[in-house]
Design goal:
This protein is an all-alpha fold and 511 residues long. 80% of the residues lie in helices and 1% in strands. The longest helix has 43 residues, at 468-510. The two termini are 15 Å apart.
Length: 511
């Protein structure tokens, strides 16, 4: 072996080895990000967990229309961070983008409350369905501003080589999970006793709390943007113009499902073009890391396409086919998402252990391995759901106990992918493009959400005189098809993970 090449191998191995540090502390500002995102997720999951039921029960929409709108809405909330990240990087800075996003979200939940109450100025001017779509478009815009930038701000609080970065993001994600638990349990109770509007009003209140917590934390702990903010009237007007265009696109996409196909394909093309241009203009090492981000996003798309079934096909399946009580207590479909989130808190406690300090090469390899493991746990969840659907017979409803383990498998899968992915982006991306790359990572969630609507349509039923037994046969066949598609996707992810290792380690050795 060439001596120069041998020296290079030794250097790479030494870079990948854990490094001992004397300081293992999280920034005190972590509590601010934890609380802000907890209340933001509360408001979002009030809408996300109730939306399919709201449209199916309140508006009496058929399954295909419900899945199309929920899928498009989910996609938009994760595609809009591309614009939100760019606005933060080039116009407003991360802090101001978060505050603007919180304000837009609060106003959108207020509109949704007025629509749900079917009284007031909103319903006097527009129909309930138009008001619903307008509010959902606002939620997509607000989420696009807030979500990528609060994650970027957290990443900026850690030194680039901090061994606590991934652990900190897992703790941060546990704050998200706490908000999800509240957002999937309390609103169902409010809806049961007080109606839909009170549930949506609680989302607006949650955003008020999030806004207060964040603005106080920014001043108290002197949280800094990635780059100093230079005030300019032109920048403010340009940001407002972009947000207005984004809302119009979101509104039109939700109103016209056929336009959604063109819109989402366009977003994919734009995101891929940005990645290709970034790779061409970066150093060889940074270019490889950007390529890894792209491959991780592909795995992410496949994961979220099945994850978001919790808010679509699985929600309506449970509402129709599963006993509505557990241990004598009312147990509606959103409570299962609460179980999944509670599992994340429990498992997250163990997964949030201190991670040895690693460089970008080892970080990318670890992330790829965890992404693949997340897909395997998702396969286990769908295998259980498919088995229960196929093995049960008769006209009796299914027991909730069959599905709780499946949702706990999904909780482990999410912990292995989402917080790990967020942490990896802040390590792998160029520091000049962190928020934009974070936005592109959220694009993968958006495309996954859009595809989830397409997959959910495989389970659509026309309700009428069908018996429970006939619905069981239909759902058994439907979830069987979904499981086979998931298995094929997992095999593809295994090949992608193998190439990530080759890209980061083998090519680095050859340089």
């Amino acid at each position: 072996m060439d001596q120069t090449k041998w020296v290079r191998i030794v250097q790479l191995k030494s870079q990948c080895a854990p490094v001992n540090t004397s300081k293992h502390h999280h920034p005190v500002s972590l509590r601010v990000f934890f609380a802000t995102e907890m209340w933001e997720r509360y408001g979002f999951y009030v809408v996300q967990s109730l939306l399919a039921l709201y449209m199916a029960m309140h508006f009496q929409w058929h399954d295909d229309r419900v899945y199309a709108l929920v899928g498009s809405f989910t996609a938009l909330t994760y595609l809009s961070p591309v614009v939100g990240g760019w606005i933060a990087d080039h116009l407003l800075g991360q802090k101001r983008a978060v505050i603007a996003g919180a304000i837009v979200l609060c106003l959108s939940y207020v509109v949704l409350t007025l629509v749900g109450s079917e009284i007031g100025l909103i319903t006097a001017l527009v129909s309930s369905e138009t008001g619903l779509i307008a509010a959902l478009a606002g939620v997509a815009v607000g989420t696009g501003l807030l979500k990528p930038n609060i994650s970027s701000l957290l990443g900026n609080e850690y030194p680039i080589d901090s061994p606590n970065r991934e652990s900190g993001f897992t703790i941060f994600y546990m704050g998200i999970t706490t908000g999800i638990i509240l957002g999937t349990t309390l609103p169902s109770y409010l809806n049961l006793y007080f109606g839909w509007s009170k549930s949506f009003a609680s989302a607006a209140l949650g955003m008020v709390i999030a806004l207060i917590v964040f603005t106080f934390g920014v001043k108290r702990y002197k949280i800094e943007d990635y780059h100093p903010f230079d005030y300019s009237h032109w920048k403010i007007l340009k940001a407002l113009g972009l947000l207005a265009v984004l809302w119009i696109i979101a509104f039109y996409t939700l109103s016209h499902p056929n336009f959604a196909n063109i819109a989402f394909i366009s977003v994919v093309i734009v995101s891929l073009s940005y990645l290709v241009l970034a790779i061409k203009n970066e150093s060889p090492r940074q270019a490889r890391q950007t390529m890894v981000i792209g491959f991780l996003c592909i795995i992410s798309v496949m994961f979220w396409a099945f994850y978001f079934q919790m808010f679509m096909s699985l929600t309506l399946f449970i509402a129709r086919m599963v006993e509505p009580t557990l241990l004598g207590i009312n147990f509606p479909p959103p409570y299962y998402v609460g179980v999944q989130s509670f599992g994340m808190l429990i498992f997250g406690y163990f997964l949030a252990r201190k991670i040895p300090q690693v460089n970008s090469i080892q970080s990318g390899i670890r992330t790829g391995n965890k992404f693949l493991l997340a897909m395997i746990f998702m396969c286990a969840a769908y295998a259980l759901i498919t088995f229960v659907s196929r093995e049960s017979s008769g006209d009796h409803l299914l027991s909730p106990w069959y599905f709780i383990p499946a949702y706990l498998f999904i909780s482990i899968a999410e912990l292995l992918l989402s917080p790990v992915g967020l942490a990896a982006i802040t390590v792998l991306a160029s520091r000049k493009k962190v928020s934009t790359m974070m936005g592109i990572f959220f694009v993968s969630l958006g495309i996954g959400g859009y595809l989830s609507g397409k997959l959910a349509s495989l389970t659509s039923v026309t309700l009428g005189t069908q018996s429970i037994g006939a619905l069981k046969v239909h759902y058994a066949e439907s979830f069987g098809r979904l499981f086979l598609i998931l298995l094929a996707a997992t095999c593809i992810c295994a090949l992608i993970n193998f190439y990530i290792r080759h890209l980061l380690l083998v090519k680095a050795i050859k340089e």
